[in-house]
Amino acid sequence: MATENEQLLEEQARLREKEDRKFMRQALTQAKKAAAIDEVPIGCVIVCDGKVIARGYNRRNIESSVLGHAELAAMKKASKKLGDWRLEGCTMYVTLEPCQMCAGAAVQARLDRVVIGAMNAKAGCAGSIINLLDMQQFNHQIPITKGVLEQECSQILSEFFKRIRVKKKKRPLTNEEISDTIMDAQPGR
Ligand SMILES: [Zn+2]
Q1: According to the model, what pLDDT value does residue 180 have?
Q2: CA distance 48 to 172
Q3: E strand or H helix at 116
Q4: Known catalytic residue: 152?
Q5: Ligand 1 centroid vs 163 CA: distance in angstroms?
Q6: What are the residue ranges in the chain where pLDDT is below 50?
Q7: pLDDT confidence of residue 172
Q8: Chain centre to alpha carbon of residue 24
Q9: What's the start-to-end Cα distance of the chain, in Å?
Q10: Residue tagged active-site, from 71, 88, 159, 176
Q11: Cα 87 to Cα 139: distance, rounded to the nearest angstrom
């Protein structure tokens, strides 16, 4: 039988999972804003003392800037709100695993925790390629919670890319696309 202490810990873990899903849903709302302006749908919120203090979504194309990532936008707003570049005591919720730039900024800002929706095998730097959030050589490490609303977070991305491919195909197909189509049409290939 679980002791009183164990039951309390379990209850706390359950509450935290519930809260993580709640804030990830808000990050997903931000990702949808990016999709609405044809940007890759990635969204982020930063939470301090149980409240969302900053939001951001990917605006890389519209701003013609590599700095247009959701996480940087949210961190910038959070710092402005707190009047401090340090975001100690804050948790970041992001729909896709951060890149090297955003993971680096999160460490620099000394965030308390990073909660991730979907992982990014090709570019993620919170465990996929490298884990910049947990390098003992740096002066700050950030605990990570992964896979919160993972399906929704990856689905919004795959739907976006599907839509982009359909849009692109409205122009004449390139030779490569024609051969892809032929390959697709041949079962067993
Ligand atoms: Zn990034």
Answers
A1: 55
A2: 50
A3: strand 113-118
A4: no
A5: 22
A6: 181, 183-189
A7: 62
A8: 9
A9: 55
A10: 71
A11: 15
